[in-house]
Amino acid sequence: MIKVLKRLNIFSENSRFYTFVILFLAIATGFVYFYLSPKYYKTYTSIQITSKDIQTQMDIIRSRKVVKNAVESLGTDKACYTKNLLFKKEDLYGHEPFRVVDLEIKNSDFYDKEIIITPLNQEKYLLKIKEPIQKQLLSLFHLSDSKNYNFEGEFFFSKKAVTPYFSFVLQKSRPVSLKDYYITFYKKDFLIDRIRRELHIYQSSKNSSLIKVEYQDSNPKRLKDMLNGLIKSYISQKERAEEKKTSKMLFFIENRLKDAKLKESRALDELRNYQKENHINISKNISSNLMQLSIGYGEELRKIGLELNTLSMIKDEIKKGNFTVISALDKKYPELASLAKEIQVMKNSVDKLNDLNPEVILVNQKIDKLKESMNSLIKNMQKSLYAHKNSIKKALKGSNKDFDKLPKNEQKLYSLEQNYQISKKHYAYLLKERSRLLNESMPDHFDISVIDPAVEVDKAFKPDFWSIMGLSLLAALALSVLLALINNKEGDTINSEDDLKKISKLPVYGMIPYVTDHRLYNKIYVIDTPLTVQSEAFRGIRTNIEYVKTDDKCKVITVTSTIPGEGKSVVVSNLAAVLGMSDKKTILLSCDLRISELHNKFHLSNKKGLSEFLQAKVPLKEVVQKFDKVSNLSIIPSGGNVENPYELLDSKEMKTLIKNLKKYFDYIVIDTPPVDLVSDAFILAGYSDITLFVCKSEVSKKSFVENIDSFVKKYEIKNAGFILHSLKKRYMKQIAYNKEYMFHKSR
Asked: Which of 489, 492, 502, 499 is nearest to 724 (CA)?
C-alpha cells in the first residue's frame, strides 16, 4: 500500500515539476476556453392549448413549415458580427449596421463561408472572401481537393454587388464604423433542421394543457424573438389550417345550397301555377300525418344523397392527397378525420426531404396503408347508406298507396306539394350545415393562449466557468497521476546494473551501451566499427572471461536469455567474433535448433548444420564453416529444423562433439534458446564452464531474472553471470573511453 501511495505522489521529487506545469496549463486552457467559447442562453415560452390531441399540436409547433415561417420572418438565416482583438465573435443581431436584400447564392458550397465587409467610407465598402488559413495551407501542399473561394472587390452601399459566387444589395440602417464586419449565410434547410432538433417541447405535467417550448441560442435577443416568432407562426398556421380544411366543404355546401334554392323556387312556382290553372287544393281525404310522413321520407332520401356525394368528394380528395378537407368533418366522420390527421403528421415529418430518401419511402408506405383503411371505411359507409336508401324507398312506396286512390289532378297536386315541402326542408337543412361549418371554420383563438411569452435573459447557462475549471483541474490531476505513476515507478524491467544487483547475486560480466544505429544489429559491429564504445565493451567482457579459472584449457561458454527479443543473437555473435580476434581459436555452435538467426548475421549457409551432424547425416567437417573476416573463428550453424531438439542436445553425440572440439579450440561459444521457453539451455549449461544470461535494458523483466539464481543453484551451473546490453546514457555509470587508446588496443 505504501509503495502504491509513493507512486501516486504527484509532488514527489520526480513529478512535482510536471505537476506544476500541467496545473498551470490546465488553468490557462480553462480560462482561454471559457473566454473564447460562445455563450449560450436558454429561455422558454408557455402556451395553453385546448385540444384532444396535445401531442399532434406539439408536433405541429416543431414542424418544418412553422419553423421555416419563423426563420424567414426574423431573417435568422444570416448572421452579422464583428471580432475583437482575440478573434472572439460579437454578434450584432438586432443592431446590424446594414441589411442584406435581393440575395442570390450562385453556388451552394458558399453557404457557411465568412464574408468580410470593410466600409471605406459611408458610401463605399470593400468585400473580401478568404478561406481559413488551415485550408489555404492544405491546398498549398496539395493535401485538399476542395476548391478555394477567394475574392476581393469594392462596391457601393444600396447598389447591387455581384461576385462569382453570390450577389446582394447592402443597405445601411445606420452610419457604419470603418472596421471589419463579417456576414455568414446559412443554408435554410440545414438551419431549420438544427432548430427543430434543439427545440424542447413538453407538457408541464402528464395531463396538462400547458405546453412549454424551450430553446437555446448564443444571442439572448434572437432567442427571445425566435421563440415568440415560433408561437406566432404556429398560431397563424393553425388559423390558416382551420380556414383551409373547411373551405372545400363550404364550397361544396354553397353549391348544394344554390341548387337547393333553385329547386325550392321551381317547386313553389309549379305548385302555385297548377293550383291556379286547375282551381284545386289538397284533398281533405289525405291526412296531414300521411303527408308529413311522405315528406320526411323524401327529405331523408335527399340527405342520404348529400352524404353519398360528400363521401364521393372525400374519395376524390384522398386521391389528390388533400386531407385537410377531411379534418373539417371530424365530428361527422371521426374515424376518417383521425386517419387524415395521422397522414398529415407523417407528411409534415418528411417535408422537403428527397423522394428517394429511405425515411420518405417508409413513410409513404405507411400512408398508402392508411389510405387503404380510409377507402375501406368509405366503402362500408356507402354500402350502409345505399341499404338505408332502399329501405326508405320501399316505405315511401307503401305510404303512397292512399294517394293512388285520388283523382289524377289531385295526385299531381299532391306530388307538387310534396316536392315543394321536401325542397324547402332540404334547403333549411343545408343552411344549418353551412352555419355549422362556418362556426367550425372560425379561427380558434380561444383554444390557444400564450401564458408566458419568451423574455430576454442576461445570464448564459453554458459554458459554466466552474464546471470548465473543475474539468480542467480534474484532467490535470489525472494526467499528473499518470505521469507520477510513470516517473515514480520502480519499473518491472531491468534498466541498469544496480537493478540486476538488487535481485541477483550473480556477477555482471559486462555492460554494452545502446547502439543508436539500428543497422548495426544485423552486423558483427566489433569487426565493422571497432572504435565504438560498444566494441570496447565486448573487449572488456573478453578480458573478464579470460580471468575466469576453469579446469580445462578450453573454455565452453553458453549464452542464453530469459525471453526472445533480448538481443541474445547480437551479443553471442559479437562475443564469438571478439574472442576469435584475440588469437584464440574460437568456434560458435548455433544450438537454437528451433529459431536460429546466427547464420544470417555471418552470411553463411544453413543447409547443413548441427542438427544434421547429430543425426549422423553428414560428417563434422561438412558442417564447420570458417568466417573469412576473423581467421580464428569457426561456426557450426543450426541446420534444418527438427522435431526433437531436446533429445539431440542431450544425446551422446552432443557430448562427444563438445569433448572433441575442446581438443582443437580455446573457446567454444554455444548459442541456446531462451530459458523461459524450453529447457535446452540448461542441458548445454551442464557442458559449460561459463554461462552468460543476456539481459536487455528496458526490456528484460525483473520477474524472469529473479528466477535465474534458483536455476543456477538447481542445475549447478558454473560461473554464471549477466551481460547487460543496450544501456542508455542515463542508466550507465561514467565511462571514459579514449578512442586513440581503443584503436591501438584493437590492433
From this structure: 499
